[in-house]
Amino acid sequence: MTFNWGGGTTDKVTTAIVQFKSRTHAEQVVDELQFYINYIKEGEYYNTDAYKQTPFFIYADTSATQLYGKNLRIKVLDQERIELSTSFSSATAGGYDYANRVSKSVPVPQGEWKQEFQFGEKIDLPFLKIVVDKRGETIQTGEWLFNFGSYWGGTVNRYKGISISQEPKGSSILKLSLQGKNKQRLIDYINTSSVILERGELQRKNKFAVSTIKYIDSSLIAQEKALRKSEQELEDFKEKSQMLDAVSQNSDYNQQLTEYEIQKRGIQNKLNYYNSLKSYLQNKSDYTAIQAPSVVGIEEGSISGAVSRLVALSEERKRREFAMRADAPSIPTN
């Protein structure tokens, strides 16, 4: 069987080959397909592997210990019923826990044993916990054998010896091949191998993504704590300095700022007036053109009064100077 593993990189293809041939991968595929369950069709001279050649399929409860290495006869009675039977020479028999890979003993009914069940019924016995499902709507009647066989020697170790090659050499196309007597079993193993491999790759990517998300979450939590600390410090500072909330009082700040700007311009105008008045008084002799302080908003009574008197005195001086001139007109007297 051939398939394109994709990716195109030598490292990925090499990794895929190593994983395909690993024991861990073989265990995962065997567990997925429950290949330790053997289906047997009795023949006149020898028995054959009847995997997917029976009208039923057996699903084992992997959390339970199953009867190990003992053939059980399964007889399809009709479209709804089956009969299981075997014989036991003692009250206990060998069992195997496929989940934990350990051998155990299980209690069994001594002597001949036979019992009927329904298709799809959960068979819950001390030595056998399975479900037998039909493989189609209409099935044939007949008898077959099945057993729970070796997990390692005849199953995992066999399949981990899968042959893999690159076709052509150096490409991302892998050729997988197995040898065995049941072709359908080999096809299922190879197909499930690729599924398991892709699933493992996805799980690793998901694990990396989860780890990345956890790291980001931890970073965000740390930043959140830092922000909360800064927020608390700001609140403490606001309480100590009697600051108002910047958001709710933003318009008040703008209004106050505008008022401060107006006051600043007013004060600057007053300063300019005082400087101009000082320069005028120092450098001029005619004070009649002095601008009134009230024009620039100076309401100080002493300043306004002094400027008014200064202007009045300056005007009086001008009149007297004019009167003292030789060409000034005489003032008639009666």
UniProtKB/TrEMBL annotation:
What GO terms are given for molecular function? non-membrane spanning protein tyrosine kinase activity
Please give the superkingdom of this protein's source. Bacteria
The main enzyme category here is transferase
**Record keywords:** Coiled coil, Kinase, Transferase
NADP found in the keyword field: no
Protein's name in the database: Tyrosine-protein kinase Wzc
E.C. no: 2.7.10.2
- Annotated coiled-coil positions are 220-270
Q: What species was this sequence derived from? A: Nonlabens ulvanivorans (Persicivirga ulvanivorans)
GO cellular component terms attached to this protein's record: plasma membrane
Asked if the keyword Coiled coil belongs to this entry, the reply reads yes
Report the PANTHER family cross-referenced here: FERRIC ENTEROBACTIN TRANSPORT PROTEIN FEPE, TYROSINE-PROTEIN KINASE
